[in-house]
């Protein structure tokens, strides 16, 4: 068993570049710009020239420049960042909401590229690729038993829109080989995971980031739920690290009545811009709940703050990340860019929810671990914000600034016997890869079952728990898994459901034990 194999969810251009997206809240009107010369800049240019011409060893001066830019920005604030040329396309694709490729999730299984899923609506989906297919050759280049890196595989499969990818595929379920020509094209990257009903009157929408397509996706989901007769909505912004400002404002607009303030921004010159709601909101008079946690940042906090300060709905969860700085993306002319903080934002009551960063980047980035240590994630009484940062909502309720949005209803992490750690474990690529291997052993059988039948099969047959336990032990994990069997089985079914079916089926399962949703049901 190769423990080094893991999921690369994107020919989709890789990961979501989490370090760049988390805490992101920015406008996208990047543009080239010119700067004046002065002695300091001349000195820096001269130093680079001297290194290139005179230094004893060959040096990659581009990397030195990148390092210098990063060091300069690090002196400003935690969210002014440099995006190198090599990172730029990936980051742009994530925020654009699509990329050009063939559109598959895959694992490298026993040194063979195996399709986990073709991405819905993408070129591979349209061409008929299926979960479990092995891609053996791409453009006559052998992919199996070659020890190819994921970068090498991606380079073979990606290309310009409209170009052709000729693949040789083995379909294990039918025991046949075939050739397929896939026309590379736009592959959607959803920012709204689901818009479903969780009961007869409650709609649920999960947003994972704020990209160019987010409001369009959100609006379509909300309109569908309204046609189904929902009387209340749960907007889930947990783990949503932010993104573009515009879709967050558009979504808040749909919840607020005309002329209610959504957000205020103040720039270096003290210019204040106040953004107010229109009179065109789609959901202004029904119950609204917004779910947040410690990783809900920036654009997510704009929505939560606007809802809380206008007394429009109930914020449920844990204190949010605390990011109140606005970045503008500016291009540097060589394919790289900076996101430079150009303003601060404030909630309608006047709160800045930016957490302090005067003690340096290391301390700033230690905030989450400090919340664990202080007990804040397990008890609302452990949240300490200065009394001097009190503000009032439109109805006179006291709210606090200075470090995230404190929810109206606090929901602690599960800490009983380490259940929170088990939940994190069961959502890792380690478990996901294991489940894919197990599905491959009986795919034809499982794909003929409904989600409920798959769950029943897994719960009733002890081999599923016992074999997972052996796998995790082999992988070096020393948890007392028997103690957590109930929790493990629930999340094991969730992973099977996620790989075998669509996101709706996955969320219909996973939300059954969501403690925030359970709490909401008691607030009515």
TrEMBL record:
One of its GO terms (biological process) is signal transduction. InterPro entries: ClpP/crotonase-like_dom_sf, PDZ, PDZ_sf, Peptidase_S41A, Tail-specific_protease. One of its GO terms (cellular component) is outer membrane-bounded periplasmic space. SUPFAM superfamilies: ClpP/crotonase, PDZ domain-like. One of its GO terms (molecular function) is serine-type peptidase activity. Keywords: Hydrolase, Membrane, Protease, Serine protease, Transmembrane, Transmembrane helix. The chain crosses the membrane at residues 6-26. Residues 80-172 form the PDZ domain. Belongs to the peptidase S41A family. This is S41 family peptidase.
